[in-house]
Hints:
The chain is mainly α. Helix 10 (275-295) crosses helix 19 (468-490), helix 23 (548-559) runs antiparallel to helix 28 and helix 26 (632-639) packs parallel to helix 28.
Amino acid sequence: MAHFDTEYQRLEASYSDSPPGEENPLMHVPEGAKSQWHHIENLDLFFQRVYNLHQKNGFTCMLLGEIFELVQLLFVVGFTVFLANCVDYDILFANKFVNHTDSSKVTLPDAFLPVDVCSARIRDNAFVIFVLIISGVFWLHRLVKFIYNVCCYWEIRAFYINALKMTMSELPYATWQEVQARIVEIQKEHQICIHKKELTELDIYHRILRFKNYMVAMVNKSLLPVRFRLPGLEESVFYTRGLKYNFELIFFWGPGSLFENEWSLKPEYKRGGNRLELADRLASRILWIGIANLLLCPVILVWQILYAFFSYTEVIKREPGSLGARCWSLYGRCYLRHFNELDHELMSRLSKGYKPASKYMNCFLSPLLTVVAKNVAFFAGSLLAVLIALTIYDEDVLSVEHVLSSITLLGVCITVCRSFIPDKHMVFCPEQLLRVILAHIHYMPDHWQGNAHKYETRDQFSQLFQYKAVFILEELISPVVTPIILIFCLRRKSLEIIDFFRNFTVEVVGVGDTCSFAQMDIRQHGHPAWMSAGKTEASIYQQAEDGKTELSLMHFAITNPQWQPPQETTHFISQLKERVHREAAGASSDTHPLSLSESEPRSLVANLLAGPSTLTSIHFGHDSSLTNQAGLSDGASALRSLSPNSGSLHLRGSLNAAHTSTMSKAMAGSGTDARTVSSGSSAWEGQLTSLVLSEYASTEMSIHALYMHELHKQQSHGELSRHTWHRQDSDESSDSIPDEVRSEPNPRHFPRSHTFPTTVPSPSAIPTSASCMSSTTLGQEGAASNRIGQQGFTNSSSDSFGARGRVVKSARGVPMGGWAEEGQAARRHHETLPEESSEDDMPPHIHKVNAVCV
């Protein structure tokens, strides 16, 4: 990362959410009028506990979970010591006979050693004594922490009941937006923060996610050493919970960390004069923490192995194929996370993208491996059938040595083989699946588009979506690898880390020191290739990669519609939403010059923003509540049609004028928060209302994410736009375009993302468009991933926008996903359908799709 030397700065008024003239108010409240919650000193920890109690479904559930964690630790240590020192395995395995006077049958207690023999073996084993001492100290530390947490969360429980007026029985069914709205409201009464008259949603998010925003920014800027290229192997990612814990220990809360408390960076790190000295100090601290990890490696490694054994053995026995299942990697969660995105919001997005991601990875099963797996499964199944038949005929067969073990191993073998055999109904169209995935995860390297069918893309996606077995293996070897990464990789980046925290830390009134990227300020951190051209002043060093600033801003604005951003940010949001709505209106017209033929699916934007007919029964009353609940379930199912779980892509019909107007206000962020409206006459109605409106917010964000990626792709390919709502030269906004921008002769080149570095294909190898659409997959999970509007988005603006929305007619080649030939527009005519191939030409049970590549 290049060095960008700037001084730490106090946040300007334009950054702050405070009204003008109230940048640093100190609220004076008479002593007698102060409530219990007046002036909470550590609001970061307070809001984190409020959020955690909500996510853990109340005080009782949290208390039971903490108690069982303590018992679980005792059980793992005690049971392991017992198995290692107090069991006579010769008797257990029938290698030694036991003399019984009353019975010849060996019982389980016969294999247990006497208490005096067991205790003597434990005392004579120095390693066991060492493990018990370490475990005892750790358990006592957890016990003290548990008692402290119980006292703290009891106070949070009282805050919910007395201040927020929410009982613990209501908490599991209340959304976080409802809790947050009440916190914002009681600030006026209780003044829990004395530095501001009013709290905003962004203030609460900043305090809960202060350190996580820094971690997301460091991953986005490729500052953390988590990507490695071993000799003879492809580039890989290693990011585990142990490594993440050490990063946070070094940067945020450990002894000698960069922060003096939860909300303030140490003063010496805010000045650039002693950066070299601070870098040496940080490197020395990283070295000592790495050495400590190295010394504790044996103990931690034993604990990891034991915990994994007790946690996953039963699951593997019950579902042997679970190790072949996939999960979102820890690196994937950090790479895909928006700035200011809470844990439950992130997991909701990733959960919706899980099934299409699994189907995409299953598209790359090896045909050769499939043939082998089928035959191995046949032979194993034959042996298993014989053994089961013999067991049914006479149960004494089970008493024969290794028969039961053979049955178990054969069952596991068959289950593993089935994981390599594709579904016979599976349709191979990876471009569509990758489009569905993008609609939910919102981030994707540019060079993946058009290359979804390649193994290189699949291998890179597997870094985000890895096998569960790989996840477990990485956690097991983490105690060995983590010290190496700290000592040999992280230490070398100490100067860049010092510069990062100085350059990208700002002080927000009433919040403290936060990561400047978390402000989601287009002017400071926007990227010109992501609709910020003419609005951003950021240098290459200051720009967030992969459109992180713009996408995070849209996500936060849609999730929190009552949030009132600064004027420049409001203009960006409203401009983008206006473009999406106008594109939808144009694509939905039958007479539109860019509308699709009847044989093709409508634009994704047109489908979703036109509105489902099933929602016409929803009526918003004058009190902003949903008064007709009859159509809510239908509306929820219609909205979920964007999800790959649905059976139909099309959202039929349209909302009537009154309903569309009200919903547009909710989606545009004006008026009442649609997710915190009155829930009606019953808790069930309120939950259903929240579900439907939450689906609307998720769907709207998916639309905007796809739209922004499409515009970014067109701009990076240098395509010229022909929007029907293209602003004319007579538009008054043309006065705001600088002459040098309007007449710029050469294209500006922007750096491509380093988050997924790879070799970019030559311009001649890049297709004009690689979006693949199949009519046979409409109504299935891949259908929702059709290229946005296809022809409808052909007229999406790939031109740069000026500060006030004037279109700048300059094609810009952006090296973020491939170069387009200058002066050439992408081909937009349909090609002839290829002839059908026979099934013999395809891998077993994979149907080939007749595709139209536009």
